[in-house]
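Q: What structure does this chain adopt?
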Amino acid sequence: MKPTTIGIGRREMLLGAAGVGAATVLTACTGNSKKSTPPATTAAAVGNANSAPGKTVTIGFSAPAADHGWIAAIANNASAEAKKFSDVKLEAVQPTNDIAAQIAAVETLINKKADVIVMLPNDGKQLTTVARKAMNAGIQVINLDRIFDSPLAYRTWIGGDNYGMGVSAGDYVGTELKRKGVSNPVIAEVAGIDSLPLTQQRSQGFRDSLAKYGFRVGPRQAAQFTVASGQQVTANLLQSAPRIDAMWNHDDDQGVGVLAAIRQAGRSEFFMVGGAGSANAMREIKADKGVLKATVLYPPTMASSAIQLARLLAQGHGMSDLTQPEVPAFITLYSATVTKENVDQYLPLGFES
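A:
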């Protein structure tokens, strides 16, 4: 789930389907694998014509190298989703963090005349030209998460909500502190890379949400979306803040280090909210033996939804649960809050850090 330090990070700006809900709606509209069993929530869509196998389509897929739990989950979700459809051939090019190499890989997909290309660019700005080249060649592009510079570069964008992550985290923190009757709380924040718009959006959402409760952010440190940086930054923050009532960490992969620093410092007087929705964070929440009490989602299942959208586009279908006959142009996933009460619902969708 971590952006590289090249250009814009992986979670840039962001229709209002819920994080899991968007995937559920799409599954209801499209699933046709004989091996897969649709979830109970999709029963109303059984018999939908979009579910039946249609013409075979080739979906090209390009993403950064899986050097982080979230990015690895993106690739795994895309591959697993494609296998559910007997009429989908996934053409995945070599993942890379090199801009020139990703451009060359996408050009290969264009030359192979893929029906649709699903692309999570290393850098939306620098991959815009090759995405427009694909669109100009009649190949529709699903822009996954990191947004291209021009809407002419994609048919549909789908991704997460960074500002919404901050709002969800702030709402959980504010509600819990009010419930506990804490006045003038000290609220810490361990952010990601401050130069990235995604970090700025998350922090802004957090501040705006806390303001509704009459609260503000206290000590704040920025890390680098890595375990090591999370541990170092949090250790420094804890040393400088003898009192903390609540903490928000932007990233569950980074959070492995954050939690390690908290345990090493022997601190347990506050509660913590994570970010993105890793499986290990959810297991920690379920066990309820430490400070981590919730995490706000930035679901890598968006890659599964992107594959489903690509199939619909290639076969000329829309989303049957919508009145509009075409696939939407812009889909923002909701940043749900996972707690001990609902963790079992989300745990199967978590990624391993």
